[in-house]
Specification:
alpha/beta, 13 strands, about 375 residues, repeat, two-stranded parallel ribbon, about 25% helix, nine-stranded parallel β-sheet, Leu-rich_rpt, Leu-rich_rpt_typical-subtyp, 7 helices
């Protein structure tokens, strides 16, 4: 669009240019729109938000920049947006946001979405330390794992009321992260990898008005959903959770189950299904370790039995030969004694020398001669 068109619209308060094919914004594109309050330029192809792009928009309250190709927001891009209440940067190509970029927004900003980007959550923590008055925060589809969550991520957000962490890779949510968010009313953890929620987290979430749990692989067994089942009759959001495992309970809502219907960890069919490989692997590994331990124990017992058998045989043989020798000596002595008693001389033993012994012994050689 020709920027001069805006000069004819000096009283304009709402402008929607969304879902077009815009590829570039001039740094002074909207300088004549000084009364603008709502600006939607989402769904276009902007690669960058330059400095001074919103230099005249001191009244702007809502800015939608989602679904573009934004890879960079310059440090001073939002310098004059001192009245901005809501900023949507979701589903772009951002991998970094500077904390200094948000300093002009610190007083008024209440809603922020950075969902669907490549932002490192560890670095984004410093942005949250600037915009401490935020009430609604969306961190969906960022591929965040439980290990990625930094300590103190929400420690400055005591005004936070809605938190969206859907579409990530979370299998566990550390309850201590929610400790500073005393005003939190709604949490969205749908489309993650939860098999169950622990006791402390369930107790913390009881104080919320709503929790979104859909599209998680809930494992309906005694290892994973016992804390949820203990409160299923008192909580609307727990009732809506739907079992994915095992087969015999797949598709059942938690409020249709009883504790007697739950099996032990990994028992029953369905734990090898795609999407649950980690859970199946855990139980396979446990079984493998048990089998390996049993095999080692059997080997040790076998070796011990063999060694004991050898020692017994050796001892038995030594005992046999020792007693045989004693028997032979006793028999010989008795024979000699009998001859003496009968009046005859003891039997003389004749010693015969071999040729080799005669050759080696000089005295025998003389006798031989």
């Amino acid at each position: 669009m020709n920027p001069h068109i805006y000069s004819l619209l000096s009283s304009l308060t709402h402008l929607d240019l969304g879902d077009n094919q815009f590829k570039y914004l001039d740094s002074y594109e909207f300088r004549d729109l000084r009364k603008l309050q709502v600006l939607r330029i989402d769904g276009n192809h902007f690669p960058v938000i330059l400095e001074q792009t919103f230099c005249s928009q001191t009244r702007l309250q809502y800015l939608k920049l989602a679904r573009n190709r934004i890879a960079k927001v310059t440090t001073h891009a939002f310098d004059n947006l001192t009245s901005l209440v809501e900023l949507d940067l979701s589903y772009n190509k951002l991998d970094k946001l500077e904390a200094t970029t948000f300093i002009p927004l610190a007083e008024k900003l209440r809603v922020l979405s950075i969902s669907g980007n490549n932002i490192d959550i560890e670095e984004f923590k410093y942005v949250l330390q600037v915009i401490t008055r935020i009430k609604r925060l969306s961190l969906a589809d960022l591929e965040i794992t439980t290990q990625d969550l930094p300590v103190g991520l929400f420690s400055h957000l005591d005004s936070l009321r809605f938190l969206n962490m859907s579409g990530n890779q979370l299998i566990h949510f550390p309850v201590h992260l929610l400790s500073p968010t005393s005003k939190l009313m709604e949490l969205d953890i749908s489309r993650n990898k939860f098999h169950g929620l622990d006791e402390r987290l369930v107790a913390r979430l009881e104080s919320l008005h709503d929790v979104h749990l859909q599209e998680n692989p809930w494992a309906c067994d005694l290892c994973h959903i016992t804390p949820m089942m203990s409160r299923v009759n008192d909580s609307t959001w727990i009732k809506r959770a739907v079992c994915s495992l095992p087969y015999n309970l797949k598709g059942r809502r938690l409020d249709s189950l009883t504790m007697n219907m739950l099996g032990w960890c990994g028992s029953g069919l369905g734990y090898k299904e795609e999407g649950f490989a980690g859970l199946a692997l855990t139980h396979k590994t446990q079984l493998g370790l048990i089998a390996a331990g049993a095999a080692v124990a059997l080997l040790v017992i076998t070796m011990a039995a063999v060694v004991a058998g050898l020692l017994y045989n050796r001892h038995h043989a030594a005992y046999y030969y020792t007693n045989e020798e004693k028997r032979n000596t006793t028999a010989a002595t008795a024979s000699e004694k009998e001859k003496i008693i009968n009046g005859g001389p003891p039997e003389k033993k004749v010693s015969i020398a071999t040729i080799d012994e005669i050759t080696k012994d000089p005295e025998l050689q003389v006798l031989a001669s």
